[in-house]
Amino acid sequence: MNGQAVMPVDPGRPCDGDLELELLRFEVHPVHRVPTYQLHMVHVESRDVVGNIRFSIGSTRHLELYAGHIGYGVLPDHRGHHYAARAVKLLVPLASTVGIDPLWITCDPENLASRRTLELAGAELIEVVDVPADCSIFHKGHPRKCRYRLASC
To answer: What's the pTM value of the predicted model, to 2 decimals?
Structure first.
């Protein structure tokens, strides 16, 4: 794929109280090489971007084992509001629509905040895996990943 991708479903603007997801772009992810929604987490009233979330709609061994279908980050000034867990939940209907079930989401074992986020989102810890030494994730300093499964149906 060359970076161009046709968006199969417009995600709209999923909302949960004061949190809304806003599409930034849809592209082939440069590392994972699958079509990916890149979205901002936006505070509804202030319109401040509070974080980002990506949803990759391909299923590859690399995604399912190490990278995950969903990745997220909340800006430091906006942590503590469960924005990431809420954003993950907001993507579940889209995942169901595009046929991704289950969703695999990963995090580093020592990242307790991310692990708590996934638990709050309803994901189940399946296992902790070693990342192969030839994987780009390993090269970025992440030798192990917790694999969480979240049903989209």
So the answer is: 0.94
Sheet of 19-28: strand order equals 15-16, 19-28, 35-43, 49-56, 70-74
- Pick from 147, 46, 37: nearest CA to 93: 37
The Cα–Cα gap between 84 and 105 comes to 12
Determine the Cα–Cα distance for residues 106 and 114; give it in Å rounded to an integer.
Answer: 9
CB-count exposure of residue 135 (10 Å: 0-12, 13-18, 19+):
middle
Angle between helices 112-120 and 83-98 (to 10 degrees): 50
8-state DSSP, 120: H
Go through the domains of the chain in sequence order and give each one's CATH number: 15-150 (3.40.630.30)
CA distance 152 to 79: 25
Q: What is the pLDDT of residues 73-130, one digit of tens each?
A: 999 999 999 999 999 999 999 999 999 999 999 999 999 999 999 999 999 999 999 9
- The first and second tokens of residue 111, run together, are 């990242």
DSSP bridge partners of 43: 19
Task: Give SS3 for 115.
Answer: helix
